[in-house]
Amino acid sequence: MLEVGTKAPDFEAQDQNGVVHTLSEYKGKKFILYFYPKDNTPGCTKQACSYSSNLPSFLDKGIEVVGVSKDSVASHKKFETNYDLKFTILSDPEKKIIGSYDVWKEKKNYGKVSMGVVRTTYLIDENGIIIMANDKVKAAEDATKMLEKLS
After folding, report:
1. Looking at 1, 8, 32, 44, which residue is catalytic?
2. What's the pLDDT tens digit per position in 79-131?
């Protein structure tokens, strides 16, 4: 996980509609950049739906929400459609963003060790500096916990 106070690494990736997004387009805005393991899985779905339903509260605070996983653009589009998600979801199949934000780690699940995305949430300020970072994310509570911290 990157430390608070660190300059957010630049990125370029397609969203669920094939539109390319970069870090520089968020200059002058605060935004949440959250990383999750996989589309259409129970925890990731709860997290995404919570961000989507709470999006008006984030936008009222001037904060945009961007999700990232290694799933394809097509998978993201299906995820968005299945759950009526209202925010940008970036596709990072080569794990360039995932690697630069230090969220690709060894994970243990039922005693099995594998590499994967560690659920992590960053809040990035108007100047591209990480001002909050959390790698102890509980999927279903992430959006509401972020809103509480922002109040």
Report:
1. 44
2. 999 999 999 999 999 999 999 999 999 988 788 899 999 999 999 999 999 99
User: Which positions ≥6 away from 91 have C-beta within 8 Å?
Assistant: 13, 14, 15, 16, 69, 70, 71, 72, 73, 75, 76
φ/ψ of residue 23, rounded to 5: -60, -40
Q: Are 71 and 98 a contacting pair, CB within 8 Å?
A: no
Q: What are the structure tokens assigned to 103, written together?
A: 């969220």
Our answer to whether residue 49 is catalytic in this structure is no
Burial (Cβ within 10 Å: 0-12, 13-18, ≥19) of residue 57: middle
DSSP 85: -
pTM, 2 dp: 0.95
